[in-house]
Amino acid sequence: MPANLQPDTLTYKSTVFDFAFHPTENIIATALITGHINCVKYQPGLGNNESLWKVRPSKKSCRGLAFSHDGAGLFTVSKDGTIGALDVNTGNVLIKKPDAHDHPINAVKLLTESILATGDDAGTIKLWDVRTGSETMQYTDHEDFISDFDYDVDSKTLVASSGQGTISVFDIRKPQMLAMSANQDDELLSICIVKDRRKVVVGSQEGVLNIYSWGDWGDCTDRFIGHPNSIDTICKIDEDTVATGSSDGIIRIIDILPNKFQGVVGEHDDFPIECIRLSHDKTYLASSSHDDTVRFWDVRYLTNGANEEEEEGEEAQDMNEDMDDSDDGDDGGAGPSGGMDVDSDDSDAPKKKNNRRPKKQAPAQANPSFFDDL
């Protein structure tokens, strides 16, 4: 990809555990194993990135970052179980809540404007009211680390993947877990809701994408085989497509049902991919790795096609509606198409062997008013 089409690589002196894109501006925040947090304004072209600020609110590693919905605040979660909040404009520490968890926090996601979810290495999931800073729910159904979260707004359902080989499902309005899947005898490292809440895709240590049908949580209903190493991070491109980051250093694009390997976005040589995220305008996919970098990949060729198809569909619908208004005959509309759930294999993808395994992570969004009343 020509250098003028994407921002320059961000290079650090230590491992990048996590990063997060600003919800509306070309700003990215990175979290390092040293506890440093960096905020950068990214722009296309070599040498055009602008460092905004750098802080170290904790000497322990920062494991997760999450911007607030309005982008004014940034949540941080740390190895020492602390949750903090930073001012995005200045980097100043606004709030620091020590011992929010008894164990290192590993996953964070803002579910609504007022509810934040955190998960730790012992399997505990907590929900926080960001208006008061109080803990509203605590779930202790897992016995191993919480690796990732995703959330469905309409049903208010939180899904979580875990190192014990199960996924769990929660209605955030209720104190009890709704369901837990059968144990896959494999660490589940990443999770993503797709197909308009009909499917949940889960990445595993063995390199298999397990696909669950919504509401049928007992066992996966389909599997995508082909990643030669663990799938540590998943990012949804659209409802039918995901990007996967593997410990072989390769970022792949996968179509879901029908399951198909679409291509490779980029790679970090032999270094495991720690995190992949899509920018607010869907222009760039960014990835962090054990090579101590965050790299940007121009993916407009992926998202523009989806937008064009959506626009064409809307135009066709408008045309049919116009014809309906002027004709009392049948509308001739076709029903939704379907496909068989089958095992798939991206055996044509480049394969690189690497036994190094990264620490599991997963970030999200947040709210700057968190802990205001403490």
TrEMBL record:
Q: Which family does it belong to?
A: Belongs to the WD repeat WDR55 family.
Keyword Repeat appears in the UniProt entry? yes
| PROSITE patterns registered for this protein in UniProt | WD_REPEATS_1 (PS00678), WD_REPEATS_2 (PS50082)
Q: What is this protein called?
A: WD repeat-containing protein JIP5
Cited PANTHER family = WD REPEAT-CONTAINING PROTEIN 55 (PTHR44019:SF20)
Q: Where are the WD repeats?
A: 98-138, 139-180, 273-300
User: What keywords does the record list, in alphabetical order?
Assistant: Repeat, WD repeat
Renumbered to this chain, the Acidic residues biased-composition regions fall at: 307-331
Judging by the UniProt lineage, the source's domain of life is Eukaryota
Chain intervals for the UniProt region annotation (Disordered): 305-374
